[in-house]
Write a structure and sequence with these properties.
Largest sheet: none
Number of strands: 0
Order of helices and strands: HHHHHHHHH
Oligomer: single chain
Mean pLDDT: 84
Number of helices: 9
Shape: globular
Distance between the termini: 46 Å
Radius of gyration: 18 Å
Length: 207
């Protein structure tokens, strides 16, 4: 019963966490548009391969990571900068009408590489793992931790696939989205996230 609870809790947290628009979802959307459903599945499998390792190690070393304020500061600072870089990359890519160079690579490899660059998942999962452990929502003794991690990566896979298919549906059926999604809306989303995270970063470390 506890194993099923671990899977359910992990799935719910990860599914909801993967729904907000992030760069992995945007690239997955591009893969789906350019190459179809099957390559998108391989892209997502590449993403969750790395996420499995990240969640496992942040679960095992959650207390130690949470106390390392210097590491957390560097990760959060990089994630702010990364949002602005992504806004520029997607904006200028759409302006130049060129496909993302990354799509030249295997979708599975692409998923692995881009997931490795998703440093913000470290503080995200460190915080959630500590919360779930302290609240006794999960129990991770012996092999039970693997059921929790399995639930999380399944939730990420399902959440990202849901968002990618939804974006494709709306972009195909809503003229405004079809015209402006990649060249305006998504760059503005990343710009807004960068500003929001930058303000939080400043307030946390410099006030």
């Amino acid at each position: 019963m506890q194993n099923l609870k671990n899977i359910a809790v992990g799935f719910l947290v990860s599914f909801l966490g993967s729904i907000p628009l992030g760069y992995l979802n945007v690239v997955g959307f591009e893969v789906y548009n350019k190459e179809g459903f099957r390559p998108t599945i391989f892209f997502l499998l590449g993403v969750i391969c790395i996420e499995f390792l990240v969640i496992y190690f942040t679960l095992v070393f959650a207390d130690r990571l949470a106390k390392n304020e210097k590491l957390t500061k560097y990760i959060e600072g990089f994630s702010v900068l990364f949002m602005f870089i992504l806004a520029a990359v997607f904006y200028f890519s759409s302006k130049s009408k060129t496909e993302m160079a990354s799509l030249d690579y295997s979708p599975f490899v692409l998923g692995i590489v881009l997931s490795c660059l998703n440093f913000v998942q470290i503080p995200f999962w460190t915080g959630w793992n500590l919360y779930l452990l302290n609240g006794k929502y999960i129990e991770v003794s012996k092999t039970r931790k693997y059921f929790y991690v399995l639930g999380t990566v399944t939730g990420t896979f399902c959440g990202m696939l849901t968002l990618i298919l939804s974006l494709h549906y709306f972009a195909s059926n809503v003229e405004f989205l079809s015209k402006y999604l990649m060249q305006l809306i998504i760059p503005l989303v990343f710009l807004g996230l960068g500003i929001f995270q930058g303000i939080k970063f400043y307030r946390k470390y410099y006030r």
